[in-house]
User: Fold this.
Amino acid sequence: MNNPKQGMTLIVKTVTRVTVWLIVLYGIYLILHGHLTPGGGFGGGVILALAFLNIMLAYGRETTQKWLNIKFLEDIEAVSATLFLFMGLLGIALGGHFLINFLPKGSPHSLLSAGNIPILNVLIGVKVAMSLFLVVWVLAGLHEEEGGQS
Amino acid sequence: MPVETWLTFILGFMILGSIIALEIRDILSSIVAIGVVGLGVSVAFLFLQAPDLAIVQFLFEIFALIILVRAFVKKDYHIETPARVNGFIVAISLLVLIAVFVSSVSVFKLLPPFGQPLFETSRHYVTHGTQETGAVNLVTAIILDYRAYDTLGEVTVLFTAILGTITILRIRKGKDAGRKGT
Amino acid sequence: MTLYLMCFALFLVGVYGLLTKRDLIKLILSIAIMGYSVNLLLILFAYKKDAVFPILLKGTVQGTMVDPLPQALVLTSIVIELGTTALLVALAIRLVQKFKTFDITKIRRLFG
Assistant:
């Protein structure tokens, strides 16, 4: 059967190399259009995590560890949660209450509208994506430590 | 068919699915049955005109299934032992729960009937939401502008829970206790 | 009102599972069932007859909408349920590695 350390067969690897970018594109679309259509930061974040999971399943854990820098992903997760807090404090610094909507609100139905809502959507999406991917990464590492197959 | 008939059907299906998930002995089958219950919740959200919630419920359900199956379904795991199901506790709990259910009927009669919500706080959000925040999606406007503090609390809770999960699953027992492994 | 009662019955199925089952995995599944039923009950409270979803579409007149406030609260609740499930699964894995059984009546000794 498939050895979990080396990933899957060649066909799966080639198809993943082509189609995983479509999944990432769909996740970014859901995050950025969060104030116009249903979706938002949470749905887009899960889809980004599923794209990373696709890479990890197709190529195996060791190759993915050489590709991606796991320490960097953990740092991104912590930084984006802190930036959410700083956006709120920035509202106090500019003279309103905590988490006030201080950027200009454009015209409705356009992409660059609604103040700082798109920025908060992006921060939440990145944070949720990194969190969920790290949980599955650690679960996969646990099984390798025990020596069992998936 | 009106919405209420669909919802009654879906809820009956969900109750049946959850009873099956709890009583069946094979682990993989019970996890799949829980997945079906979660999908039923997502379809019910679609009938209740909440597309945002249907997307989020469906995706998070899939992730919960992935984590459960990855952690518990292995070749050499057991099937739940049927030994000595304590009949006394089962009978007492069933009696207590049926008593609670029957006595709650009078409480549920006091609620407003299905299809006529009270709408006191949300009247301001629905009528002035778009001009005050500029967002067309009213649910996003509520969670990121009117009630952004709740979203900050939720990000904190999710961060703490995932941090706890990663810390518990990362400690290597035995020899390499000091090495920080990834 | 039948819908509210059926939702409450789903919650009671979850409580039954929590009270009588002895397998660790069944306890985790019971907590998930209770979470689903509470989310569904909150959205059942927010439905208005013959209304549309709370998003303004371009070029159409705004009709009556369903209540958007419980939808925002339930969105938060769904995300937190996933965090709870992940933490419970991590604890269960470590317990099984230590005690080598899934039965909670056999896990009695405190470690240390």
About this structure: Chain B has eight helices and no strands. The mean pLDDT of chain B is 85. Chain B touches chain A at residues 51-52, 55-56, 59-60, 62-63, 66-67, 70-71, 74-75, 130, 133-137, 139-141, 143-145, 148-149, 151-152, 155-156, 158-159, 162, 165-166, 169-170, 172, 181-182 (CB under 8 Å).
